Protein 1
Amino acid sequence: MNTPPVFPQTAPLDPLVLYGETFTSRLLLGTSRYPSPSVLQAAVQLAKPAMLTASLRRQNLVNPETSNRFWQLLDDLKVPVLPNTAGCHSVSELITTAHMAREVFATDWIKLELIGDDYTLQPDTLNMVDAARQLIHDGFKVLPYCTDDLVLCQRLVDVGCQALMPWAAPIGTGKGPINPYAMKTLRARLKVPMIVDAGLGLPSHAAQVMEWGFDGVLLNTAVALANDPIRMAGAFAAATQAGRDAFLAGTMTEKDAAEPSTPVLGTPFWHEA
């Protein structure tokens, strides 16, 4: 008698690996613009992100106690913190900020943000590679926030970046992937992990880029400014995992013509006399 196959009840573990470190989630969350610290805390606890991004500039000079509570909240959440260099406009400013962040957060992880245009907040693509080279030389694990430009991304890999964070659209726009061709080309050509950072507004956007083979997503505004940030954090976490599972499962090939899902072979054929 043939033994029936045994199928697993859950998908096998598929961890995200960055710079040799393993993370069980493929979702990263920002920590700004939430209605309250308690909402941020609940959103993080529901979504269970791999990392939380935070800026060294996150301080309240008028009421330092507010800043102290925020830093204490991050510590209490027990989620790895990814410091970023948000607001930096020059390589020297960025390098200084990164070193300060390493001291404050006691981590070698850094999200490289170098702003080239204040209106679109587009990264400075001309100086980013040099900044990444210096940070890597100084022992940082660099995650550069960049555009979907293939040549730029290749240069970042060439200087030692083991992962990239290309945008889907300008930060805070919520437009979703505005250049699918560029993003798919980027995914096909480069083999390093890539986390889509900026421009995602809907959980369906997260699922879409994950279906294309991207390795993770980083969100802030889409969650923090939702009517219900906690529920939205959970929705993005579920969509991110669903997109990853779809990519691993292998999606069907899109076709122009209809094709019946129910076979007609062997079914009766009736006709009127």
Note: The radius of gyration is 22 Å.
Protein 2
Amino acid sequence: MSWYDEVEYIREQARLNNEFFANSLPMIASENVLSPLCREMLLTDFHGRYAEGTPGQRYYEGCKFFDNVELKAMELAKKLFNCSYADVRPTAGTTANIGVLKALIKPGETAVVLDLANGAHISFGKWGGAGVRGINLVSYPFNDEEMNIDVDGAVKLIKKVKPKLALNGRSVFLFPSPIKELSEAAHDVGAYLVYDAAHVLGLIGGGQFQDPLHEGADVMTGSTHKTLPGPQGGVVLSNHKGDSDEDKSFLRKLGFGVFPGVTSSYHLHHVAAKAIAFAEHLEFGEAYARQTIKNAQALAQSLYERGFKVFGEKLGFTKSHQILLAIGPGKGKEASKKLEEAGIVTNMNTIPGDTDPLNPSGLRLGTPELTRIGMKEKEMDEIAEFYERVLLKKEKPEKIKEDVKEFRKDFQELHYCFKEGYRGYDYFELV
């Protein structure tokens, strides 16, 4: 192939990807779509520039305009999350987590964590960032019925092992964590509590989930591209103000953990898009977060009524954007493939009791992107019917895919963002 053919092949794959998602039901709980103004930032000259350091203290010249952007991003993040410290440099939620681990715990020291089978995120597991840091990990006890950390057992565990960090990192995040109780126990033994809000950052920013930094968490990390519909990236937030020498040292460690700890230059175009996303969420976040949760609850109820095993039944299934289904021993991957064939995009997931993450028994569903394109409770019942047809009635996926495409025709416009003359769903078109 000539260079032109190679380039055209890549462009064609991007076009096909855009077309696929425009005609499907995107339900990956960790995904969302950018507003037109966020996308604009990704196409600016920022994308090719370096800005190691902090505003006003750079290792490179030519950063005066970006300094203004980073300062504005920090200001907006602090306003959105009602906190006193914000670092917008991490290039991903996992990068933010590893930066905090580098800052606050040494290799060989102990941290208490959630087990992967109970919904933990891999960055706080032995295969992820915590393992890379060489941390001794001890798992919290878990309440399968409530799909949450066993509060009494966790408090006892913290008092017993006296960890350096109490970590709250979750990939399946149906209900708020017991942060007040865990943080009190952690602080009693001289530990910090770190809350990974990757999945629920936008729900927290919209005031619809919990408020970790005001419930006792010392640090909150997050991803800026899940329930907070911004660019892929991360953030580190805290309410420590630097009022004492100990507090100043704590914040210096956090900053040093991010740079030079885990970043060099840090994707300046993404920082600019984060700033836009924070501004949009200050305006639209409350309504967006509320509808996202309503949709998840409505979908969970509809799935349950159609015969699916939905976790968290006694507590209303979910208080977030997520739903967890039990499909059958080792059947999660097969189910997710069948759904994709029918135009429904989700992911296999471990459920309590699973031991093999590559052959799990569940599915994790999310409503952030469905909400973003204007769907509400009524549409969730129709979507539950698609799941029933694919997984319970076992109809041919090809027929269901056509029905999904027809259903999707009425939902081709972004909501909960600044549109600035934007029309239709053309952000799916290749620029």
Note: The chain has two domains: 39-274, 285-428.
Protein 3
Amino acid sequence: MKVKKVVLASDHAGFKLKESIKKFLVKKRKKILDLGTKNMESVDYPDFAHLLSKKMKKKNNQMGILICGSGIGMDMAANKHKNIRAALCYNIKSTKLSRSHNNANVMAIGARLTKKNLALKCVSAFMLTPFEGGRHNKRVKKI
């Protein structure tokens, strides 16, 4: 996936990690759209997952990153949307497989379960790993 823009969103539990990821992406000179949240006040994670998913539908060549406490809620909410293939990424291998086998276009990260350095490595792996296509194409089409 040739990423032109990275769309970010988090709930209050993921706010600090989102800010770290944003700084990381700025250093890599990526275009970023930060949909919030803007602080650590309690919010409802589905609102941000739905907002990101709607933005992702409108343009190609975008990658989405959702961050909440576990990553699970964001992942579940995002996958309700057509053409969104969100994957819960918890280590480098799961991240690479989400791209190479499933052509994921959104990654979900659990801020309470994933340390910052690992999360940044996962973001990098997500951006750099291409979809293999081939035998995986027919499976992705069934999603």
Note: Helices lie at 15-27, 45-58, 72-78, 92-100, 116-128, 135-142.
Protein 4
Amino acid sequence: MRAMILAGGLSTRLYPLTKQVPKPLVPVAGEPNAAHLIRYLKSYGYDEIAINVHYLSDAITSALGDGSQFGVRLEYLHEKELLGSAGAVEQMKYYLGGAPFVVVGCDDLTDLPLDKIAAFHQEKNAVATIGLVERKDVDQYGVVVTDESGKITGFQEKPAKGTERSKKVNTGIYVFSPAIFNHIEHGAFVDFGKNVFPALQQAGEAFYGYDAGNAYWCDIGTPGEYRRATNDVLSGAFRLPGREPMQRNVWIASDAHVASDAQIDGPSVIGPRVRIESGARVERSILWQGASVGPNASVRDSILGMNYAVAAGETLDGAVVANEPDTTLA
């Protein structure tokens, strides 16, 4: 079965971290989120996966390769010009258009039941089905309104508190039938949320939402949500595909160096090749690969990007920091 991971964007919401690291390679517990997504898709039988790349594309293809390390086959779309979420999928029509397929965003960390969403999609003979989860507060999400059958009757984008018509939010996880390509203009910039979905709803097409209730879903595309997802992984509230629940307060990569008198308080992630020197203290922070904390330095409630160095005796508190990139668009 075939699926597509949308991964072409710049992920400006995570700047400056993603100036140097493309968003599919943003690490969760020391491993790129794209790897977690591929394993998630594979667990439901989706072993032929397309992925669009644009920004720092060579880094992505180098890290993920042909997919064999995950037991899947990856097909890359190298976009010289981004054409939106739907525009990217349309360019892969030759690959995806033979049967219903799944689309997920590379910012997603989730355990939504793809088998149940796909079965619901088939039962409704739908053109498109959106995976939905329920949230108590929906003012920061795209809200989806459905009738009793699950057919989509309306949308609200980040409604003010008290004005929401639903507690169901769009996860960015979709099932499409090949007929979706009849609704995407070839060669144009087309977005699912802004263009395709409103048009489907207004035309009365077979367009549905599958309510996954309290299934886990987090969009890691902002520092706050990225930290929440990381904390959920560390606490065991969310289990990464193919890995045992962590249920620990601190995760330290096997090749990290932590001085014997350094102190680490969780929830914290100490990524690959990180160095924490004598007398240093790290509290409730995420350190990406190659970062370093000098002697007697202190890092609290912060995220350190790849290879970022905190000088001896320096204090960071509530910071999101990264080196400026030394690469250009690929």
Note: The chain has a mean pLDDT of 93.
